[in-house]
């Protein structure tokens, strides 16, 4: 018995008397195993028998299935229908039936199946034979085909290119909106008809799609298109042609149409598709171009003569331009050389300002060094005298060694010890040495600060630096310029290390502090307050003095190169200009506010992280807390 005959069998009666019960079970199992479809037997409750195909379809093992009710395989939506249908079949109301349903697999998935029910008598009892055929692939294929059909319809109908499709019987199956718009005939008038010729021609005749659907017989093309057609270079079996249709539009339209065959899987023609393209503008443009060409040729001849004359004039202009370019290059070379000289001069001015600053400080530094050197020298002189006394005492002791028992000698040694006051020397000499060390330390610190300020052993690369340490070092250098004029008050805030050129920042601090000292009154001691703080990604330094202040009329000029209010020979006028340039080079901001008779405050704002090419901080920067003037 083959698979199909087994599925279609309506009723099978088995003579159970010829077989023992176990034989009946074995025979039944062999029969349903021979069927290719999934099969189970039941009598309205627990499943009696299954084959391997049902195990594969459901995912359950044979033991799991034989422990289940046949309704356990039904989904919630189909359970009542399955119960009723199987019950009717078991009762004999329907010998066999066929319908589509769903079952639940062991994984929880829902599988579409075709169900075939047959009623048999097994072991004297009515039994339902259920065969199940998996419809998943067929359902998927049907869905895919419907989706492809919808997609094709959407593509054709939504295509802006006018398109029509006919089938093998030359009936119109598609007539998209663009085609209806260009022809003026809506799709509902043509779909399903053989009147695709009507929008184009006054009398019935094949259109290009009809000829292609017939196999693209070129004799038909020669008759209807009179050599105005050609085979498509893009699509195999397709043809192209152009034609004028006077009834389209207000004054007619030129259409370019292409027709290609539609083939089935075996390569047989089952229809044709034709697209239309309005080329009226192109044809009109070609006509206008031909008309313009004649006039253009005449114009070209006339212009050629004019051009010859212009070329001669242009040759003279080119010669003049080349001469001008050579002169421009010469002047550019001169400007480059002058720019180099100017750059060198600027560097010399910067160095001159530095040397002037160091020279101005040299006398004060010498004075500061002389003080500790003075008492170091004095202490060393005293120490030398003390040591002479000690050596003299030692000589006396050496002399007394041979005659230590002589009372007169012993008295003499004792008198000398008391005269030299050995105990005092033991106490004073260490103190003298300590003072000498402190003096030498001060000298070393002053020299080191002077060395740091003069850029020794430093580079011109940005590096992380402690601003407070730099300010303290600079104040130590300029102490002689300030200490006789003002007191320095430090109001340091919390500052992170910043990326900068430390020696250049020290130069700015020195220039402002020295200017502040020079602004103090000769009769009243002033005060210089140095404040620091941090705001966002920037830090700021304020240097405020109680000096004479800067008049408003010159406040805007103080950063100009060579501008100075000092007497001739007392200043170069470059200190604040260089300071301004240094701060700008750090992408920072140098601002000032001043009031005559009350003093001046400079504010330096610097970014914590130096970014090459970053914009300079502006007045509305978040680091500026007050209204400052540049």
Produce a short descriptive summary.
This protein is 48% helix and 20% strand. By secondary structure, the protein is of the alpha+beta class.
Question: Can you give a write-up of this model?
Answer:
The protein has helices at 3-8, 21-33, 52-58, 62-66, 79-91, 136-158, 177-183, 208-213, 218-225, 280-400, 407-420, 422-453, 467-477, 479-482, 502-518, 552-555, 575-585, and strands at residues 38-42, 47-50, 96-104, 110-122, 125-134, 163-167, 172-175, 229-231, 239-245, 253-263, 269-278, 463-465, 486-491, 498-500, 526-535, 538-545, 589-595, 599-607. The chain is an alpha+beta fold. It has four domains: 3-134, PAS domain (Beta-Lactamase, 2-Layer Sandwich), CATH 3.30.450; 149-278, PAS domain (Beta-Lactamase, 2-Layer Sandwich), CATH 3.30.450; 283-450, no CATH class; 458-607, Histidine kinase-like ATPase, C-terminal domain (Heat Shock Protein 90, 2-Layer Sandwich), CATH 3.30.565.10. α10 runs antiparallel to α11 (407-420), α10 runs antiparallel to α12 and α13 packs across α15. The longest helix has 121 residues, at 280-400. The protein is elongated, with a radius of gyration of 57 Å. The relative contact order is 0.04. Mean pLDDT is 79; it is low at 1-24 and 619-627.
């Amino acid at each position: 018995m083959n698979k199909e005959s087994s599925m279609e069998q309506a009723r099978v009666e088995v003579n159970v008397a010829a077989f023992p019960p176990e034989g009946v079970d074995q025979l039944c199992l062999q029969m349903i195993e021979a069927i290719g479809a999934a099969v189970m037997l039941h009598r309205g409750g627990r499943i009696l028998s299954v084959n391997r195909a049902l195990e594969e379809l459901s995912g359950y093992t044979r033991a799991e299935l034989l422990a289940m009710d046949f309704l356990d395989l039904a989904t919630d939506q189909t359970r009542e229908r399955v119960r009723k249908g199987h019950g009717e079949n078991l009762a004999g109301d329907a010998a066999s039936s066929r319908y589509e349903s769903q079952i639940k697999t062991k994984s929880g998935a829902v599988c579409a199946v075709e169900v075939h029910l047959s009623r048999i008598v097994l072991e004297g009892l009515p039994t339902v034979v259920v065969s199940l055929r998996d419809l998943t692939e067929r359902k998927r294929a049907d869905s895919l085909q419907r989706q492809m059909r919808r997609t094709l319809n959407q593509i054709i109908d939504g295509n802006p290119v006018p398109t029509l499709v006919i089938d093998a019987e030359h009936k119109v199956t598609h007539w998209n909106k663009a085609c209806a718009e260009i022809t003026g005939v809506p799709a509902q008038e043509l779909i399903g008809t053989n009147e695709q010729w009507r929008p184009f021609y006054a009398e019935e005749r094949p259109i290009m799609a009809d000829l292609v659907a017939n196999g693209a017989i070129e004799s038909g093309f020669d008759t209807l298109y009179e050599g105005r057609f050609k085979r498509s270079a893009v699509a195999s079996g397709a043809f192209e042609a152009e034609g004028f249709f006077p009834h389209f539009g207000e004054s007619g339209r030129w259409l370019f149409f292409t027709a290609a065959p539609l083939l089935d899987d075996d390569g047989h023609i089952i229809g044709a598709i034709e697209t239309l393209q309005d080329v009226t503008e192109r044809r009109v443009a070609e006509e206008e171009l031909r008309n313009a060409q004649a006039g253009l040729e005449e114009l070209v001849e006339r212009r050629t003569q004019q051009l010859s004359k212009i070329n001669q004039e242009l040759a003279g202009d080119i010669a003049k331009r080349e001469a001008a370019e050579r002169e421009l290059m010469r002047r550019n070379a001169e400007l480059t050389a002058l720019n180099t000289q100017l750059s060198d001069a600027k560097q010399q001015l910067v160095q001159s300002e530095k040397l002037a600053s160091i020279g101005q400080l040299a006398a004060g530094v010498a004075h500061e060094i002389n003080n500790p050197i003075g008492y170091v020298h004095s202490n060393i002189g005293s120490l030398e005298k003390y040591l002479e006394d000690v050596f003299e005492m030692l000589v006396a002791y050496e002399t007394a060694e041979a005659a230590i028992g002589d009372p007169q000698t012993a008295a003499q040694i004792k008198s000398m010890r008391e005269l030299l006051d050995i105990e005092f020397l033991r106490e004073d000499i260490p103190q003298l040495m300590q003072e000498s060390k402190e003096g030498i330390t001060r000298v070393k610190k002053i020299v080191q600060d002077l060395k740091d300020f003069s850029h020794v052993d430093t580079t011109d690369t940005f590096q992380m630096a402690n601003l407070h340490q730099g300010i303290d070092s600079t104040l130590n250098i300029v102490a002689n310029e300030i200490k006789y004029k003002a007191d320095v008050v430090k109001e340091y805030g919390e500052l992170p290390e910043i990326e900068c050129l430390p020696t250049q920042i020290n130069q700015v601090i020195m220039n402002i502090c020295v200017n502040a000292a020079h602004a103090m009154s000769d009769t009243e001691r002033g005060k210089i307050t140095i404040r620091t703080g941090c705001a966002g990604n920037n830090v700021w330094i304020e240097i405020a003095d109680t000096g004479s202040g800067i008049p408003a009329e010159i406040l805007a000029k103080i950063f100009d190169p060579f501008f100075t209010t000092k007497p001739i020979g007392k200043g170069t006028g470059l200190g604040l200009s260089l300071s301004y340039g240094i701060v700008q080079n750090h992408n920072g901001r140098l601002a000032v506010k001043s009031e005559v008779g009350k003093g001046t405050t400079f504010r330096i704002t610097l970014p914590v992280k130096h970014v090459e090419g970053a914009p300079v901080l502006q007045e509305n920067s978040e680091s500026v807390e007050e209204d400052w003037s540049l």
